[in-house]
Prior knowledge:
The protein has helices spanning 19-28, 32-45, 88-94, 99-102, 104-107, 140-151, 155-166, 178-185, 189-199, 212-222, 228-235, 237-241, 245-252, 256-267, 314-323, 327-364, 366-371, 381-388, 392-399, 432-445, 454-465, 471-480, 486-496; strands at residues 49-51, 59-60, 289-294, 297-302, 310-312, 403-406, 409-412, 420-421, 430-431. It has a 5-stranded mixed β-sheet with strand order 2-4-3-6-7, with helices on one face. Strands 1-5 form a two-stranded antiparallel sheet. Among the domains are: 140-277, no CATH class; 420-496, Arc Repressor Mutant, subunit A (Orthogonal Bundle). By secondary structure, the protein is an alpha+beta fold. The chain is extended and about 90 Å long. The longest helix is centred in the C-terminal third of the chain and has 38 residues, at 327-364. It is built from 23 helices and 9 strands. The N and C termini lie far apart (97 Å).
Amino acid sequence: MAMSPRLEVRQSQSLTLTPQLMQSIRLLQLSHLELSAFVDLELMRNPLLEREEGGDPVETDNAELPERPSELNAAEDTVDFSDRIQSADSIANGYDTEVENVFPSESTPDRLSDASPWSERGTSDEAPDIDQFVASRPSLGDHLWSQAGLIVSDPAERLIARFLVDSVNEAGYLATDLESVATQLGAPLTQVEAVLRMLQTCDPVGVFARDVKECLALQLRDRDRLDPMMQRLLEHLELVASHDMAGLARLVGCDREDLTDMLSELRDLDPRPGRAFETSMVEAVVPDVFVRPGADGWQVELNSDVLPRVLVNRAYYTTVTRQTRDTAEKQFLTDCLQTANWLAKSLDQRAQTILKVAAEIVKQQDGFLTHGVTHLKPMTLKSVADAIEMHESTVSRVTSNKYVSTPRGLFEMKYFFTTALGSSTGEADHSAEAVRHRIRQLIDAESPSDILSDDTIAELLQKEKGIEVARRTVAKYREGMNIPSSVVRRRQKRALAPAGR
């Protein structure tokens, strides 16, 4: 059968992700700090954008949210400056003087050269930023190098010392092995070891250690407490974590009283000597949504303090486009207007989407807000997405990096999404988070003489709540909460129990 080419016309529909649509999707998952930085950048780029100061927060008193109009109100986004536009000459004529007397900076641009340094701030009433005058804290590397310059005098050894200082991590430990240092620098290993021993006398005591045992040994040596018995204790440091006191006392060669005293000395040491020089700033978590009890249920509202608002200055756009005949300038302003309209609409849609998702979460987790974590219901992205008629990916982006303040505390939105565990009734009405909470309660309440195994905890959950959970699931949840096994817990609680109990 012969084949011949032919032309066909087909009609189909497809979704094309334009750059603006991709940017709108990206805005959903930004935190309030990232969003604020993005808006600030757009304000600098776009002359038609202005920041709206103040404004009432968008809020709702129940889980039913009002529908938002698809188009923005042009009158609300317009700032009319037409009555404020005056030329410098007209102002000067009104005061019967020269324009240089009204605007001296127009004729004497170098006038600030003889002024004080504070004059560079112009006529602004804002006080200078105090952060500009706060002394910076020295880093751990700077602190160590200032001491190494006094300890090491040989030029070749100074080079080795510089390399070792740069290899110290934030905790104060040496993050490289000496063999690689000797190979890279082409120096004898004995010389590198000698330089390291000199640097290990630096402040804070314990820096340049290669592991925890060496770090503690350096601090004990500085206190003149590194005797043979203490050295044997450091060699079996892993038994301290497992609380095997009987085996530890036998290996160290001491009685229980001496072992208790030595362990007390170890607790006074600092396993992270470099943490005093940590420079990372601790940022407080600011909620994106507030949930408060109201007369008709829970009230959900956005935090207006972290919600950026922008206005589109269409009056400025109209004025400039009328005065210019340059095609490129008009096209630039048109692009700026489209971008400004898109940003204003995207921010509004983002706020409404966050509010809609938060209201549905509050609606489904009413038991948690009223009674606590034991009443946290299983909830998935799909259940919320189906309820508000959105896609799961949208709900996932909205709940990322967002926090909600409730009477129960401050929680990340992702916290409320938890898997379901089956029960003896066949209904999946127990959330994994609630089960983890109950496991922790059972372990905290156990006595040193009656430690619960994972099998026993699974049986108790079955008897109390009717929760069908396997032993390996209990072990997984326990390990996820950093709770040791029943054997280790028995040693720990017996060690902490009063004598004679």
